[in-house]
């Protein structure tokens, strides 16, 4: 198996890939329960009927597991990258609260829109369009994307631990550092940092598990069982709908286009950022075998729509596995296996509190900002677009938005400083499309 994935050639080992797969799984396992808790609200009557809620929650949970496991497995076997896939946060909220509840589109038709988006993605990937568009992004924006993702996931970790909380006056502020969640996260972060500095194998994974145990003493780790029954998948399986009314509806295609746009650049940014942090990218910041990675991502979305969940995307939590030393698709295979096992052991996965995975996200974020040293900060035409790209991601809670703003500023600043020859035609086209997106779709 090691020869198939080139583990030795990648400077890794079977044990390191296993630890990396576990670390990625532990940091993303929350999606198994968070995603259905969001998507289930798109089902009419589910919010007010406990029996209906539980029925659809279980089906969507299984759909989340299957789509994530298959997408992640394809990423490992086909693209040979340690990247995991799952339904994207933000995209699932758009699916539920905007498409279904605000626009009044039936959830089955909305799944049809996601299915259509997946087909379009597969077609564009096969034609090589996705790779060409991603390669047209300036290297500065690609580097800043990796750092921005680092800040983003660190923010998610701080928020999950209650260290950063909302505030009506300042939007965010420091939370209660004496709370069980904050203390658990700080404990786990210290464990990870010390073990990583001492080059102890499995430092990130050990830190998560140590924080989980510490959380038990703090009263936030609660195990309600180990094995649970497999929920019935029939309420959502193959329920996506296409009908003539939706196909000729401009609103339907606007939804498809919005899903497409956000997912496209969210995935492009994540793949580029993770690839850069793992040392996969070439001198221009391009990711080898990107077509295969995009295909795995496309099929994840395609399969998710069939089973009954929102758009799948590459997960930034994969950085935890990369920080653990994972360098090949073998880690993704392990992550996929653990995801599938959660069909049987969902109560066990639910026992890991967000405060225990938060330190891994914060630590990985600190590693990903190291790429900033490669940016020519003394050149404002490079530094400012990079800065805007980087800070916009955590502040708008969107990777795609960070890329959008950075890609608009980059060519404009180059133009008015007389450096327009440094911008290729594809970058200008993308900038124009981003502007149209902000005006009509955002």
Please describe the topology of this protein.
Elements: H1 2-5, H2 14-28, H3 31-39, H4 50-79, E1 85-87, H5 91-102, H6 107-126, H7 129-135, H8 139-160, E2 164-167, E3 171-174, H9 180-197, H10 203-218, H11 244-247, H12 250-278, H13 290-307, E4 312-314, H14 318-323, H15 329-349, H16 354-368, H17 380-396, H18 399-416, H19 425-440
Antiparallel strand pairs: 1-4, 2-3
Helix pairs in contact: 2-15, 2-16, 3-4, 4-13, 4-15, 6-12, 6-13, 8-12, 8-16, 8-17, 8-18, 9-10, 9-16, 10-16, 12-18, 17-18, 18-19
Give your account of this protein's structure.
The protein has a two-stranded antiparallel sheet with strand order 1-4. It has a two-stranded antiparallel sheet with strand order 2-3. It is built from 19 helices and four strands. The chain is mainly alpha-helical and 442 residues long. The chain is globular and about 65 Å long.
The biggest beta sheet reads: 2 strands, antiparallel
Q: pLDDT under 50 segments (min length 5)?
A: none
- Strand arrangement within the widest β-sheet reads 1-4
Total helix count?
A: 19
Share in helix: 55-70%
- State the distance separating the first and last CA atoms: 45 Å
- Outline type: globular
**Strand residue percentage:** under 5%
Mean pLDDT: 88
* N-to-C series of helices and strands: HHHHEHHHHEEHHHHHEHHHHHH
Topology, number of strands:
4
Radius of gyration, in Å, reads 21 Å
Helix-and-strand structural type: mainly alpha
Features of this protein?
two-stranded antiparallel ribbon; about 5% strand; 4 strands; mainly alpha; about 450 residues; globular; two-stranded antiparallel sheet
């Amino acid at each position: 198996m090691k020869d198939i994935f080139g583990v030795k050639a990648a400077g890794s080992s079977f044990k390191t890939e296993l630890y990396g797969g576990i670390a990625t799984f532990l940091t993303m396992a929350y999606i198994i329960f968070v995603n259905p808790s969001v998507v289930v609200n798109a089902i009419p009557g589910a919010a007010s009927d406990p029996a209906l809620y539980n029925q659809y929650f279980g089906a969507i949970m299984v759909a989340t597991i299957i789509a994530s496991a298959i997408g992640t497995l394809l990423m490992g076997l086909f693209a040979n990258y340690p990247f995991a896939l799952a339904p994207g946060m933000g995209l699932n909220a758009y699916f539920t609260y905007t498409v279904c509840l605000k626009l009044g589109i039936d959830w089955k038709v909305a799944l049809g829109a996601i299915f259509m988006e997946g087909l379009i993605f597969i077609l564009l990937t096969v034609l090589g369009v996705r790779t060409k568009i991603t390669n047209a992004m300036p290297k500065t924006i690609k580097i800043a994307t990796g750092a921005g993702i680092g800040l983003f996931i660190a923010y998610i970790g701080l928020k999950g631990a209650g260290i950063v909380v909302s505030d009506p006056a300042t939007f965010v502020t420091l939370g209660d550092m004496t709370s069980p969640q904050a203390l658990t996260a700080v404990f786990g972060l210290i464990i990870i940092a010390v073990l990583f500095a001492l080059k102890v194998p499995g430092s990130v994974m050990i830190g998560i598990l140590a924080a989980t145990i510490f959380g038990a003493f703090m009263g936030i780790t609660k195990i309600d069982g180990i094995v649970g029954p497999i929920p019935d998948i029939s309420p959502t399986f193959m329920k996506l709908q296409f009908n003539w009314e939706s196909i000729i509806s401009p609103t339907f295609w606007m939804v498809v286009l919005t899903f497409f746009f956000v997912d496209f650049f969210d995935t492009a940014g994540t793949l580029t950022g993770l690839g850069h942090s793992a040392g996969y990218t070439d001198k221009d910041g391009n990711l080898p075998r990107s077509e295969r990675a995009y295909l795995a991502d496309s099929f994840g979305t395609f399969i998710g729509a069939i089973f009954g969940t929102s758009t799948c995307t590459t997960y930034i939590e994969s950085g935890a596995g990369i920080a653990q030393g994972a360098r090949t698709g073998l880690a993704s295979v392990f992550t996929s296996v653990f995801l599938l096992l959660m069909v049987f052991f969902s109560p066990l996965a639910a026992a890991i509190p967000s405060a225990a995975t938060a330190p891994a996200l914060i630590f990985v974020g600190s590693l990903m900002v190291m790429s900033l040293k490669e940016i020519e900060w003394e050149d404002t035409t490079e530094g400012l677009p990079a800065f805007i790209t980087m800070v916009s991601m955590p502040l708008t809670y969107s990777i795609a938005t960070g890329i959008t703003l950075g890609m608009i500023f980059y060519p404009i600043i180059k133009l008015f400083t007389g450096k327009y020859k440094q911008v290729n035609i594809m970058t200008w086209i993308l900038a124009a499309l981003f502007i149209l997106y902000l005006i009509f779709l955002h």
